[in-house]
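Each record in this resource describes a single protein on a pair of labelled lines. An example record follows, reproduced without changes.
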Amino acid sequence: MNVPWLSVQGETRPESAAGTLAVCFAPTGAHGSTFANWRGRLPEDTALALITPPGRGTRVDEEPVTDMTAYADAVAAEIRALRGGRRLVLIGISLGALLAYETCCRLLDAGVPVTRLCAVAGQCPGDFHGDGDDVTVEDARAFATGTGPTDPELLADPEFEEVLLPPVIADLQLAAGYDGSRSPVPHVELRAVWATEDPHVPEVTVRRWIDWTRGECTLLSVEGGHHAHQENPAAVISACLDGLPGARPSRRSVLGVGATAVAGTVLGLGAVPATEPGAAAAAPAAAGGVSFEGDPTDPVGLAVAMIRQNTSNPGDGALTRPFAKMLQGIFRAAGVGTEIVPTPKEGNVHFFARVPGSGPARKKPLVLLGHSDVVPAIGDKWTTDPFAGDIKDGKLHGRGSLDMKGVNAAFVAALLRHVREGAAFDRDIVFWSDCDEEQGPYGVRWFLTEHPGKVDAGTVITEGGWVLNQRDGRTPMIASLTCNDKRSLLLRLETSSYATHTSKPFTGQAVIRLGEVLDRLGEWRAHIRPNALSRQYFAELAEATTDRSLAEALREMLNARSEQQRDRAGEAVVRLSETPELHNAMLRTTLAFTSAQSGYYPSIVPGTATAEFRAAFLPGADDPGRIVGELRSLIGNRAALTVVGNPGESEQQALDRLRGYLAVPDSGYDTDVFRAWQTAVRRTHPGVRATACQFEAVTSAVPFREQNVPVYGMYPFTVNRDMLKRMHGTDEHIGVEALRQGTETVYQLLAGLRTES
């Protein structure tokens, strides 16, 4: 093509130009003229580069480009030629946001720095997964009428339509055939902008751009509709060009007008500033994408793909639709029916896949219950990218590798291996990926309330028990399937004194008093009180371990006749255990300290300081009210301790609710599923004891157990102390070969439910 794609307004000698080059990508069907009212409004050191693609404007006689690669390659080549020594800012409006993103990827791959990428009123790269072949003239006409600023009377003119619609069709084909997951996510500063009155690309859609950079991401809003860049140019220019590093101050009439930063720098959902390379980052290869190209019966490849889907849950639920779409593609390719069920939160969905059972005596379904969401990977620094799914030294690293995308991968791979073999089961096998297990209002309890009878589970298997090695770290020792969970209570401490100037510190400052109280609580230990499930597990452990000292301490604890003897022996069990934190939590009430806050100005000694912690209780052991009273007696008048319940709950109501949870019976283990698991363990771990167990954490099992549905928990792969300590922590990982062996255990469990037909 002889006509250039780019033209720089007022350009003379680009090789000597300085300042900023703002390259603007037009919305669907448009070209550079859509930015006509930007001239004269730009900062003084900024040049405007406009793109005229084939098929429009001065190039109307050329064939439109419908391939994103060809489009981005051509624009990137001309940018390299015109850039000179200037900073590059790429600004994409609507469809232009995708074009700007792809061009940015190519420039960075070629070593050309991009200072900022701006996506205005645009869907993100993960929203498109088609082939582009089914776009019709009717689609283009509907788009131009409903989304574009074109007068419908002009569209009624056949001659005008002949000129207008071909570039619209071409651009719709560009978008429909696009798959952003094919390229690695770039490291670039990103500004994602939505218009407050845009009916086509709302705030929730624009927010998904946070997963499409490994650099800093800022979310902003401007007044106006879908074409705010024309309706409110000053605000859009401000949103895109304000605060550029090294730029001279812009005109007061342009910058700082009409753009509102609603989220500042977004860290909680995967984006990080370039100054913190060890912090959390968006997935480098497949963030937001929905395709999986590997073998679905390979749990390692599946787990890597799942980790690369950043489903961080900031506390009110995760954005899990892309993850669910990926799962949907995997199961559909295997011929398994699926369903995605939305929740009231946009992008927050439950995923189901169902393999129908067969035979005249079909039993109620077995539900393999996983969860899509993971806790955020922020705050403490990682030594690996938490959303890369890197494999190093035989370990798979990443947020969710242990909790619980590794388990999800084992469930899916084992089930699809049976499907590939043409297996028939004596009941439906349902894989369910919950969206709000970590936090949020729309998890399993919400689903069972809003959709009663939809799952109708007969038995549930979810996260829970562990496979542990002997002291040598290599020989499997014991496998557990959990039959109940601990439950926790959130407690808050507050100390108070008075606020004053930092020049006049005094004895008894609130922060110091809080520290003293936390020290005292940190030394507190509840009595050793194993419940029935824990006693069964530790009795089996005493027979399984080759450590004679540990076995002796276990038997002494279980046979103790006094509380003092049991406490002494229990402390020895914890001390001698290779996984002391795990076994301590299975023996007593525990306290875990999660946050502390105080201070609001550098020259003020604050008058109050607060901290929060969780007390976790074993069913059948300590009463929560008694423990709260004991802790209050311990701290005396040094601090106020309050129970944090649900909104509107009194302390008594919160304690009674917790007592109700703790009273839910254990899941019985005289069931065919429990026996199938024991048989599976014998096949994959010969000689290892397989026992019922108490889980040390909280899962989504309680709503099922309240309905008398047996729920069992497993992490089917072998773990060690370091791996357990990194659950919800930094550098979370699992063993690659352990994951494969654990998947074999799940496969053998399901094999026990197959029928002959």
